[in-house]
Structure formats: structure tokens, C-alpha cells
Design a protein that fits this description.
Number of strands of chain A: 12
Largest sheet of chain B: 5 strands, parallel
Low-confidence stretches of chain B: none
Radius of gyration of chain A: 52 Å
Number of helices of chain B: 8
Number of strands of chain B: 11
Oligomer: heterodimer
Shape of chain B: elongated
Shape of chain A: rod-shaped
Strand order of the largest sheet of chain B: 2-1-3-4-5
Distance between the termini of chain B: 25 Å
Strand content of chain B: 15-25%
Strand content of chain A: 15-25%
Order of helices and strands of chain A: HHEEHEEEHHHHEHEEHEEHHEE
Chain lengths: ~450, ~220
């Protein structure tokens, strides 16, 4: 289950979510705790200033130290957590509450200090204000007032603890959400996998619906469907091909069987038997040739045709081909044009590839027509063009003209494998073939890489 | 001329033997590699026809053993697979020629004769059959004393026929020997060439020398 967790999209997404949530909550928490801290400090300071103003008022309005202390005592009744320490040059003048804390604070505070200062004494936190004050009767005292802020810091501590918990919860929650989103987001991928699982040789028509697919996956689905299309096409071609092959082999076997059965039906002369055997031999030859050609094409399909590599001159070879096949061209003018051309490849195979094109051209040139074999170089390519006068090959037929058993005419001349073999040979040489046809002429071109 | 055939496929072996016997050879047939090797080492043969796929010892092992024992008579091997490696291996092990199944019997016969002829008497430069004469050096052909004009290929074709009088020449063999066309194409180019040659050599003369054997090829002889 955890195999490949390193690359799991779900895990990555969950972690990313958790990290993001942690960062955001931590930042927020920090901000709020700072803000609360600042706000509390402001409140405390305001309160301390208020008390300070009261003390200053008493100091100005009361006539004696006694009155002042009594008035202050009264005013401070009920104040919790407030410490007031007033000292003159001789020592303590006023303490509230009357404990050691006030003495300690009075010593610790820096006087005068308009800004509130924080002091930590005896396990408690105090916010402190200290000033010098002149009283109505003329003496000067230092006033230190402090507010115990333990409950504030406790509140902030609590707040921070809550936030930490919230961060943890949020991280967990978002991680879960991340997992859920990843699962949901990857559902189309699982659909693709399921569709792929359903596909078999018999069900290549299966496609993944391209609507309702997230745009991010549309490309994948499209490519997948296109691949299925190509597979289906080649599979159909293979099936057609098998059927064609069966047909091609059945026809000569059928005629062999017929003529043998009929001949054996009654006694015949030696001449007749000889004829039968000769005719059978011709059929056998045809069968052998089809099988050899098929074998060659099958090998070529599997990349097993390894052309022998040698450098040789192509024009001489073409001259020989023209001389040989020229015997077939009774009423057709045959020309060879082009300079000497050195190519790299298998002499026998290329002889066959070009020969097939030449036979085709001669067979399809009309009486008094022409056939032209032209050699040229274009960049790093050798071009061997075989063209003949005659009618155009329909565009839709041109597309499949290099496929096996494709015959343009219904008369069964040739095995229908010649052009397929030519293409296989040229492909095995790293080249390509093309056909152009219009009303005046048809041209087949072999492109070969130059040495 | 004694020929040993080592071939395990019953029908092929039988007909090879019969065909060679009828062509005037003494042919022995063995059906597995081990017997074949012993017989080839013990007997006095001029040629060995060796199938590659054999029970017991395969053709390669037989060939290796023969060459190791210093037997240098020609070996023609038969293979069902048209693999370059097969060809290269056979020729490296010391085979002299090979044929890929299925092959035409006339093709086999032609190769057998070539192998047996190899290394023997120098080829003559004047070839004669009936009143047809061919001077190979002067490139001259005459019939009944009349000069016959031939193209270079027609001359080569006639020379092939005259050198192989009485032998059946398959069309594929002719195409490869005269035009260097080594693939089996189902065209009738050779037929056309023979027709033209006949028009020059045979049509106006008697007896006819070039004969067609339907389904097999052509033969030049006096009938």
C-alpha cells in the first residue's frame, strides 16, 4: 500500500495542504497574540495614567500628608492588583497594599518614567509607571504605581495554547481535505485506467469519453484515444490482411484441387497428365512466391530485415533494370535520366525495390506512352523517381497504395505485394516512399539517405 | 558422379533422389545427420546435398565434422529459413552453395552441375550445337554458316544455353545468370527474351534447339 508513497500525488497534496494551513494559522496566531498583548498594555497604561492623575489631584488638593494618605486610602479601596508606593527623600510615605511588594517595586522602578515599564517580581508580572510629584505643601515625592498583569499574561498564554491546538487541528483537517480532493481529482485517471483495462483485441472500439474530463487531463485522454484509434486501425488492417492472405492462398489451392480432381476423374492420356502437372507447377510457384513475399514483409514489420551495407553506384543498377524490364515495354518509351549516384545499402534489395516500381510503371503506361526513371540528389537525400504517363490514381487510393494486396484494377495481375515490399525495403534503409498522380502522369519516388 | 543426399523430410528426400537419378547422377539418400556423416566420411562422393535441420546431428555439425576430417568435396546446403545468419554460417563452415526452400528442382540441378564442374577443365571458347556455333572470344554467332546479330544480353543468354546443353534452366536461374536479377519476380521478362532469341536463332532454321518445358523453364538440345 505504501509502495511508491514517495511519488504519491495524494500524499503530496495532503502534505502541501497541511503545511499551508500550519503556516497561515501560525502567522495569524502570532499576529493576534501580538495585537492582544499590545491592546492589554494600552488598557493597563491608560488605567495607570488615570490612577496617577487621581494621585496628582490629591497631592494638589489636600493640605497635609495625613489628609493625602487618608484620601488615597479611601480612593483605592476595592482595587485589586494595584500597587502604589510613594516615597520622599526620607523613605516610604504611602504603601498600598501594605506589603513588601510595594517596597520592592519602589526600589526596582526607574524614576521618572512616563512610559509604562514591565517588571517581573516574585513570580508576578507588573506594569509600572513612576513619576515625581510635588505636593501642595511643597515636598516632592516619587510615585510608583503598578498593576499586577498576571491574569493578562495567563489569558495570552491560554490564547497561544488554543492557537497551537487550532493549528494542529487545521493541519490535520486540511490534510484530510487534501486527500479527499486528490482522490476526487484523480477519479478521471482511474476512469482511464478502468477503460484501458476493458480494452482487448476484440474491443478496440472502446474510447474514454472526452466530455466531462478536466481540461488538465483532456490532453492525456485525447492522446490515449488517438492511440486506441491507431491500434484499432492497424489491428483492423492486420485482420483484413489475414483474410486477404487466406484468400490469396485459397485461390491457387482451390484451382489446384479442382484440376487435380477433375483430371483424376477418368483415365487420360500422358499428354493430359503432363499438362496437369505443368499447370500445377505454375500454381505452386505462385504460392511459393506469395509465401516468400509475405515472409519478407512479416520480417520487415518486425524490423528483422537488415539490409547489407555497401556503397554502390545506382545509375548502373538502374540501367540494368531498364535493360531487363525494357523487354516488357513493347510500345512504351523507356528513359533513364540523371547523373551517377552513389548510395549506401543493400544492392539486391534496392534492385528489387526499384524493379517493382519499374514493372508497375511499364504495366500501367498506355500504348505509346512513356516511362521515366530519374535519379537526383536533394540535400542529403537521393531521389529515385519512377514515373509513367497515364491516368490519375484516385486520391483515396493513393493513401493505401503501399498496403499489401491493394490492387487498383480488378484483374489479378501480380501478387499485390510489390509496392508493399518496395516500401518495406526503403523503410529498412531509413528512407521513405511517396506517390504523386495527376491526369498526365503518375510518379513514385524513393527517398534514400545519402552516405 | 555420386551424390549423397542427407534430408529427413521423406517426400523431399525421395524426389530429390529420383530427380537426380533421372538427371544421370548416382544418388544415395540418408535421413539423419549421424548416418549422413558416417556415410559421407566412408563413401566416395563427389557432392553432398545437406539439409540444415536434421535429427541427430544437424547439418552444421555434419559439415564441421567433414571439413575437420579433410573432406573437401563440394557441399550444397538446404535451409528453410531465409536468414542472413544461416547463409553466413553455412558458407563460413565451408559450404559451397545454398538453396532456400522451397526451390525449383531445376535450380538445384543447375547449382549441382555448377559445383561439379567447378575446378575442372577450362571452359571452351567455341560452343557448338548442331549447326549453331558461338565464338565466345570473337563474340560471333552463326547458324548454318549465317552470321546472327545478337545484342550483348542475347549473346550471354545463348552462351548460357550452349554451356548447359540438355539442362533445364529455370527462369529465375536465367534471370540471375544473364541479367543479374536475383529476386524472384513473377514477370515474363525471360519469356520475352527467349522469344526474341528464338526469332533470331531458331525460327528460320531446323532443327529447333530451344525448347520450353512448361512450368519448369527452358532447355537447349537437339530433339
Amino acid at each position: 500500500m505504501f509502495k511508491g508513497w514517495r511519488h504519491s500525488l495524494t500524499l503530496r497534496l495532503a502534505l502541501a495542504f497541511a503545511l499551508l494551513a500550519t503556516l497561515v494559522f501560525a502567522a495569524l496566531g502570532l499576529y493576534f497574540s501580538r495585537a492582544a498583548d499590545r491592546h492589554m498594555a494600552e488598557l493597563d497604561t491608560h488605567d495607570l495614567h488615570g490612577k496617577l492623575a487621581l494621585i496628582a489631584h490629591f497631592a494638589a488638593s489636600e493640605a497635609s500628608a495625613k489628609d493625602f494618605s487618608a484620601r488615597l486610602d479611601n480612593a483605592l479601596v476595592g482595587e485589586h492588583g494595584l500597587v502604589v508606593a510613594i516615597d520622599d527623600a526620607q523613605g516610604a510615605v504611602f504603601r498600598w497594599p501594605d506589603t513588601a511588594v510595594a517596597d520592592v517595586l519602589s526600589r526596582a522602578a526607574v524614576v521618572p518614567e512616563q512610559q509604562a515599564q514591565n517588571l517581573h517580581l516574585d513570580n508576578a508580572d507588573y506594569r509600572v509607571l513612576a513619576i515625581r510629584l510635588e505636593r501642595a505643601w511643597g515636598d516632592t515625592v516619587q510615585v510608583v504605581i503598578a498593576r499586577d498583569i498576571r491574569h493578562h499574561t495567563a489569558f495570552l498564554e491560554q490564547l497561544r495554547a488554543d492557537f497551537r491546538l487550532a493549528v494542529l487541528a487545521a493541519a490535520l483537517l486540511t490534510a484530510l481535505v487534501g486527500v479527499a480532493i486528490a482522490r476526487r481529482g484523480l477519479a478521471p485517471v482511474r476512469a482511464i485506467a478502468r477503460a484501458a483495462g476493458r480494452i482487448s483485441a476484440g474491443q478496440l472500439a472502446e474510447r474514454i469519453p472526452e466530455q466531462n474530463v478536466p481540461p488538465e487531463l483532456a490532453e492525456l485522454v485525447h492522446a490515449f484515444n488517438a492511440m486506441l484509434g491507431r491500434l484499432e486501425e492497424s489491428f483492423t488492417r492486420l485482420a483484413d490482411f489475414s483474410a486477404d492472405l487466406a484468400h490469396e492462398l485459397r485461390t491457387p489451392i482451390h484451382s489446384l484441387r479442382m484440376q487435380t480432381e477433375v483430371s483424376l476423374g477418368k483415365p487420360r492420356s500422358v499428354e493430359e497428365y503432363r499438362d496437369l502437372l505443368a499447370s500445377s507447377l505454375e500454381e505452386y510457384e505462385r504460392l511459393s512466391r506469395i509465401i516468400a513475399d509475405m515472409l519478407f514483409l512479416a520480417k520487415a514489420d518486425h524490423g528483422l530485415v537488415m539490409p547489407h551495407q555497401e556503397q554502390f553506384e545506382l545509375r548502373a543498377l538502374c540501367g540494368d533494370l531498364i535493360e531487363y524490364y525494357g523487354l516488357l515495354a513493347d510500345n512504351v518509351s523507356l528513359t533513364l535520366v540523371g547523373e551517377a549516384l552513389t548510395v549506401n545499402g543493400d544492392r539486391l534489395m534496392l534492385q528489387r525495390a526499384i524493379g517493382n516500381l519499374l514493372v508497375n510503371a511499364i504495366n500501367h503506361a498506355p500504348p505509346a506512352g512513356w516511362v521515366r526513371l530519374a535519379l537526383a540528389t536533394q540535400g542529403a537525400q537521393a531521389q529515385i523517381s519512377v514515373s509513367n504517363s497515364g491516368t490519375a490514381i484516385p486520391t483515396e487510393a493513393q493513401e493505401h497504395i503501399f498496403d499489401r494486396f491493394v490492387r487498383l484494377e480488378q484483374n489479378h495481375e501480380g501478387s499485390g505485394l510489390g509496392l508493399a515490399i518496395t516500401r518495406s525495403i526503403v523503410t529498412a534503409h531509413g528512407g521513405s516512399v511517396a506517390v504523386h498522380s495527376d491526369a498526365q502522369a503518375t510518379e513514385f519516388v524513393i527517398y534514400l539517405p545519402m552516405p | 558422379m555420386k551424390i549423397l543426399i542427407v534430408e529427413d523430410e521423406p517426400k523431399t528426400g525421395d524426389y530429390l533422389k529420383q530427380g537426380l537419378a533421372e538427371a544421370g547422377f548416382t544418388a544415395d539418400l540418408l535421413r539423419n545427420g549421424l548416418d549422413g556423416m558416417h556415410e559421407a566420411l566412408a563413401g566416395d562422393y563427389d557432392l553432398l546435398i545437406l539439409d540444415v535441420n536434421l535429427p541427430g546431428l544437424d547439418g552444421w555439425q555434419v559439415l564441421k565434422a567433414l571439413r575437420a576430417a579433410g573432406r573437401d568435396f563440394p557441399v550444397l546446403f538446404l535451409t528453410a529459413r531465409d536468414q542472413v545468419e544461416d547463409r553466413v554460417k553455412g558458407l563460413e563452415l565451408g559450404a559451397d552453395d545454398y538453396l532456400v526452400k522451397p526451390f525449383a528442382f531445376s535450380e538445384l540441378l543447375a547449382r549441382v552441375r555448377t559445383l561439379l564442374r567447378r575446378g575442372r577443365a577450362k571452359e571452351t571458347t567455341t560452343l557448338v550445337l548442331a549447326d549453331l556455333e558461338l565464338d565466345v572470344l570473337k563474340r560471333r554467332a552463326t547458324r548454318a554458316g549465317q552470321r546472327i546479330d545478337l545484342t550483348a544480353k542475347e549473346f550471354a543468354l545463348l552462351e548460357l544455353f550452349l554451356r548447359r546443353q540438355g539442362e533445364v534452366l529455370a527462369r529465375s536461374f536465367i534471370a540471375s545468370q544473364v541479367w543479374d536479377m536475383n529476386f524472384d519476380s513473377d514477370t515474363n521478362v525471360v519469356e520475352v527474351a527467349i522469344r526474341r532469341l528464338r526469332a533470331k536463332v531458331d525460327d528460320d532454321f531446323s532443327p529447333k534447339l530451344i525448347h520450353t518445358l512448361r512450368g519448369m523453364g527452358y532447355v537447349m538440345e537437339i530433339r
